[in-house]
Every structure is written in C-alpha cells, then in structure tokens.
Design brief:
The chain is built from 15 helices and ten strands. With about 325 residues, it is of the alpha/beta class. It has one domain: Alpha-Beta Complex (Spore Coat Polysaccharide Biosynthesis Protein SpsA, Chain A). Strands 3-2-1-4-7-6-8 form a seven-stranded mixed β-sheet, sandwiched between helices. A three-stranded mixed β-sheet has the order 5-10-9. α1 packs parallel to α2, α8 packs across α9 and α11 runs parallel beside α15. The longest helix is centred in the last third of the chain and has 29 residues. The radius of gyration is 20 Å and the shape is globular.
Length: about 325
C-alpha cells in the first residue's frame, strides 16, 4: 500500500498523528510505504516520523516539495496574499513519486484513519484514474465553476489515484490547460481543477472514506438546506459514515471552535485525535488557542446564537455574498 501526504513543517506533528493512525489500523497489511512531500521539515521532525516508521516496520520516504507553480508552468494568480499553491502537488503525483508507484492514496495531513483501509485499497476503479468522496456543494457553485450536469464535485482531501492511468491520460497537461484557460485564477484551488478536468469520470466513494466535520456537527436536513444541495448522498449513507467512519477529515466549520489539536476546541474528534497523538514521539500533544480576538468574538456569537439564526446567516454568506465575491475576483483576474 502506498500513502502520500504533502505538508509544511508547521503541520508535521498533525501529519505524524495521521500516519500513526494508519499504522495502527492496518497492521495486517504486509507493506505500507508513506511518501511525504515536505516543505522545510526540520531534521528533528523527519527523525520523529522515521521513528514511527521503524516502530511499525514500515517505510517513510521524504520528497522535497517543489515550487509547483513554477516547475509546472501553471502561472497561478493570487487574490489573497496568504494563498499558497503547494496543494497542487497532489495533481502531479505521477511526476513527484517514483515511476514504479502505480497506485497511491493521497491524504491531507488532517485526515485521521479509524478503520481498515484494505477494502478501499482493493477497490476496482474501472476506467477511472481517481476516486473520491462527494463534497457538499450548492448548484450555484456548479454553475459558477462551469461544471456539467453529470459532474459530482468531490473533496480533494482524500483521493485514491491510479497513477498508471493518470499518466496515460496525460492529466498533468489537462490541469495546466484548465488553469491557463482560467487565466491563472481558480477558486477552491486544486480541488476545483481536479473536479473540472475529471468531471463525470471520478469514481465515487462511500462517504465513510472522507467523513468531514460538517457531516458530524450539523444534521443532514440542515446541511442540505444550508448548502442548497442537489448532488449529494442520501441520508442513510451519511449516517453510515458518521457511525462507522474509516477516514475522518478534521476540517473546520462555523460550528467548531478550533481544530482537535488545540487545547480549547469543540471539535468532535479531539479524544480520537489525542489517542493517536499520544503514540507519536512529539511531546506536546495539543497546541494553545491561537485565534485572533476577532475570530474569538465571531466564534462566541455563533456558539451562543439560536441555531436557526446561525443557519440563516451562514446560508446568506455561502449562497449569495461568497458567490458574488468569486464572480468579482474572477472578472478581475480575467482582465489582467
């Protein structure tokens, strides 16, 4: 089994916790190779990850993270100064990983493994070069991003790649073309590019393989209403994922104060995260609350307002204000 992450040094401890959760829940798999495309990892953090691999008799391979925007001639544009384009690495794994790697499971560093991956790894992908879980996206966004009626917008935090087929289909060329056609501006970053170049051809996984936090913190009915979703799973599938997840994506949302690796948090996965973090060589398991005052005030208001009012306000932001902002930014970039 081949697993791959990309992470900067500041996310090494969280990624290490994800890695140990894989090792713990897949002891019956003979071989697990973990590739970490790393950005400025300290020798100490590398050593800690190597200790984990040695402890479970697994292999870990570090690959220096390239400037993917430059090396792949993407010419991506920034709308916000804080935007970085490292996440595009997952769309060029066919180049970044050794040629002998025919199949790989890409995971974001904030994904926790809570069950066996054997069934997922042995999945028959048919004619598809990638498999993923549907994201909860409203129809306005499908239109805005130019996705057809047969498309299912998927979350890129967990992707099972058939790299042989990805290479044969020259997907890297298609990624570059899409970015260039959009004048270097892509909202939702590489996730949108992935969905655009693969639309209608992504193998859809059960949501238990990417159970993101919004599924766990808001009712199915409210989620569908909030996002005005039409292309999504039935309630039964979401309930199965919540009750028996295999890969849990510890994302943030309006209903969560901080991520599970922070001391002060309302994230439902903190106990589970701590369980695996305690098996790593890192001494400090949880981080201090580093929210800015403005964020603390907003979080307090959300936590104390009636839930119906929160849903109403968030819906306005998501379905109207945000859409207009994307349209405005896109038009600015198109004219440059």
């Amino acid at each position: 089994m081949n697993i791959v992450y990309h992470a900067s040094d500041s996310f090494a401890k969280v990624t290490g916790t994800s890695i140990v959760s894989i090792f713990e829940n897949n002891k019956d798999i003979d071989e697990i190779n973990v590739y970490v495309i790393e950005k400025n990892f300290t020798e100490d953090n590398k050593k800690k990850m190597e200790q984990l691999a040695d402890k479970y008799n697994r292999r870990i391979i570090f690959i220096p993270m390239p400037d993917i925007n430059k090396s792949e001639h993407l010419h991506l544009k920034k709308i916000k100064e804080k935007w970085i384009f490292d996440s595009y690495c997952r769309l060029f794994l066919d180049k970044l990983l050794p040629e002998e790697v025919e199949k790989v499971l890409y995971l974001d560093g904030d994904v926790l493994n809570t069950g066996s991956l054997k069934e997922l790894w042995s999945l028959d992908m048919g004619e598809s070069s990638a498999a993923a879980v549907i994201d909860c996206l409203g129809e306005k966004y499908y239109e805005l991003l130019g996705l057809g009626k047969n498309a299912m917008y998927c979350n890129s935090g967990v992707i099972l790649f058939d790299l042989d087929k990805w290479r044969k289909d020259c997907m890297g060329d298609k990624v570059r073309k899409y970015v260039h056609d959009n004048n270097g501006y892509v909202f939702f970053m590489e996730q949108t590019v992935f969905n655009a170049v693969m639309q209608g051809k992504i193998k859809i996984l059960h949501p238990k393989y990417n159970t993101y936090s919004m599924m766990q913190t808001i009712s199915y009915e409210d989620l569908v209403k909030l996002r005005k979703v039409k292309r999504f799973y039935k309630k039964r599938k979401i309930e199965e994922a919540i009750n028996n997840p295999v890969l849990v994506h510890m994302t943030s949302s309006f209903w969560i104060v901080n991520r599970p690796w922070c001391k002060k948090t309302t994230h439902p996965m903190q106990k589970e995260y701590i369980k695996y973090a305690e098996l790593t060589p890192w001494d400090q398991i949880l981080d201090e609350d580093c929210r800015k005052n403005k964020k603390k005030v907003i979080d307090w208001l959300v936590q104390n307002m009636p839930s119906k009012l929160v849903l109403f306000l968030v819906s306005i932001v998501y379905n109207n204000l945000r859409v207009k902002k994307i349209e405005k930014d896109f038009n600015i970039c198109k004219c440059k």
